[in-house]
Write a structure and sequence with these properties.
Helix content: 40-55%
Order of helices and strands: EEEHEEEHHHHHHHHHHHHHHHHHHHH
Strand order of the largest sheet: 1-2-3
Distance between the termini: 61 Å
CATH class of the largest domain: Mainly Alpha
Number of helices: 21
Largest sheet: 3 strands, antiparallel
Number of domains: 2
Bound molecules: carboxymethyl coenzyme *A
CATH architecture of the largest domain: Orthogonal Bundle
Shape: globular
């Protein structure tokens, strides 16, 4: 049973047999070949490294049109949500499928407050990491540790979905802020019930005994907007990991912890940290934008222009458009100017005008500008991917729930084409000259 419509069939002819494969169509017109019975009927598997051509699920959460640069959560354009909603409203939307009424929002906020604390024993964990520990490693370990404090989740996660969701959303923010304090060597700051989601996070980050942090409405709004941009992105690498782990019926915390690790990689969410490091290095060492672009074009250099390119977007990433605007506003608000922003904008222009980038449809992605905004807010570079994780959490949760409850969901278990050695024995190997030579070396 599928939710997509069967609109036609495609015929595959192989070794004298014809196989009719249903062609399915999603609600926005995207089409897919249904190969679910292919192996059973023909003995063939599909070969698709990186799953470039593979739809792994039907989903009603997020829609991406990579050709036209469209991103929608539950039908709402990302620009619309960033303009009119708070991050928490969007989190509610992603998880529940509809925007909250004021009373639903207030109940949700109350739950968020109620669950914002960490068990005091968890505080001790932070002190045991080395000083240079990357906050993403701490985040992943802490999230999975939550399952040891809330094991009831394993027995019935649907029992109180609001509690589960708010617990994770709220505690992830607290963990993130605590890991920053650990990195700074400052005393931790507890969450406060009188502050809203983003204000609360900023206060936990920047309040110190000698600095009475006052939430700044411009920064709070910008943070809400940036987190909204990150909140979901259909079947990206980390979300696929969350769904795959969830498909084994691992608990929500374990699945999200795995997603955090996947996000950390520099080809995915970790790109925001790389972008800033590259910009800082270029400015420090007087490397021109043109030189960076030339280096990225060199096949032998193994170097990429981080913050550029995307598997799905073959035009300007709609998130990058909003991020650029937010970043410019924050920098103007904080310091009037930033040589790194000037450099980034020049780099963007040089890359967009270059044939190599045009031929491959490489445009700035979400990570190109977000880091500059976080930096202007005072967030250190190694926390950037943590910010992405805080934003992505509602999407991961929504996708995990959809995977778990969706009809016909099965454990994720891809196939392979084996190209290794044929059958051999240990005895034969020990008797070879090659083994004898290696042994005497
Ligand atoms: N700089 C230079 N060349 C690039 C870049 C780049 N940033 N991105 C892609 N290319 C080239 C690549 O070398 C290849 O060239 P050719 O056809 O000559 O071999 C072509 O463009 C296609 O690239 P690909 O690696 O096959 O594309 P992909 O869909 O597998 O990878 C990507 C997508 C995002 C991993 C890649 O564009 C990339 O590495 N970008 C830099 C890292 C980055 O910014 N990641 C953040 C992505 S957005 C946030 C998120 O959702 O994760």
């Amino acid at each position: 049973m599928t939710l997509t419509k069967k609109i036609s069939t495609a015929r595959l002819s192989f070794e004298g047999h014809d196989y009719d494969l249903p062609v399915l169509e999603g609600d926005m017109g995207e089409r897919g070949l249904d190969v679910r019975n292919l192996l059973k009927d023909s003995g063939l598997v599909t070969f698709d490294p990186g799953m470039v051509n593979t739809a792994v699920c039907e989903s009603n959460i997020t829609y991406v049109d990579g050709k036209n640069g469209i991103l929608r959560y539950r039908g709402y354009d990302i620009e619309d949500l960033a303009e009119h909603c708070s991050f928490l409203e969007v989190a509610y939307l992603l998880v529940h499928g509809f925007l909250p009424t004021p009373s639903e929002y207030s109940a949700f906020s109350k739950l968020m407050n109620l669950h914002s604390m960490l068990h005091e024993n968890m505080r001790n964990f932070f002190s045991l990491y080395p000083d240079h520990a990357h906050p993403m490693a701490i985040l992943s370990a802490m999230v999975v540790s939550l399952s040891t404090f809330y094991p009831e989740l394993e027995s019935d996660p649907m029992e109180a979905i609001d509690i589960t969701v708010s617990r994770l959303l709220s505690k992830l923010r607290t963990i993130a802020a605590f890991s920053y304090k650990k990195y700074m060597g400052h005393p931790i700051v507890y969450p406060r019930s009188d502050l809203r989601y983003c204000e609360n996070f900023l206060n936990m980050m920047f309040y110190t005994p000698v600095n009475n942090y006052e939430p700044d409405p411009v920064i709070t709004r910008a943070l809400n907007q940036l987190l909204i941009l990150h909140a979901d992105h259909e079947q990206n690498c980390s979300t696929s990991v969350v769904r795959a782990v969830g498909s084994s019926h691992a608990n929500l915390y374990a699945s999200i912890s795995a997603g955090v690790c996947a996000l950390w990689g520099p080809l995915h969410g970790g790109a925001n940290q790389r972008v800033l490091e590259v910009l800082e290095d270029a400015l420090r060492n007087n490397i021109s934008p043109k030189a960076l672009v030339e280096k990225a074009k060199d096949r032998h250099s193994n170097y990429r222009l981080y913050g550029f390119g995307h598997r799905v977007y073959k035009t300007y990433d709609p998130r990058a458009k909003v991020a650029k605007k937010v970043c410019t506003q924050v920098i103007k608000h904080m310091s009037q100017s930033d040589p790194l922003l000037d450099y980034a904008q020049e780099l963007e222009q040089v890359a967009l005008a270059d044939n190599y980038f045009q031929e491959r449809s490489l445009y700035p992605n979400v990570d190109f500008f977000t880091g500059l905004a976080y930096r202007a807010m005072g967030i250190p570079v190694n926390m950037f991917t943590v910010m992405f994780a805080i934003g992505r959490l509602p999407g991961w949760i929504a996708q995990w729930l959809e995977q778990r409850d969706g009809e016909g969901q099965r454990i994720v278990r891809p196939r392979q084409l084996y190209v290794g050695p044929g059958m051999r024995t240990v005895e034969e190997t020990l008797a070879t000259d090659l083994y004898a030579k290696k042994k005497t070396k």
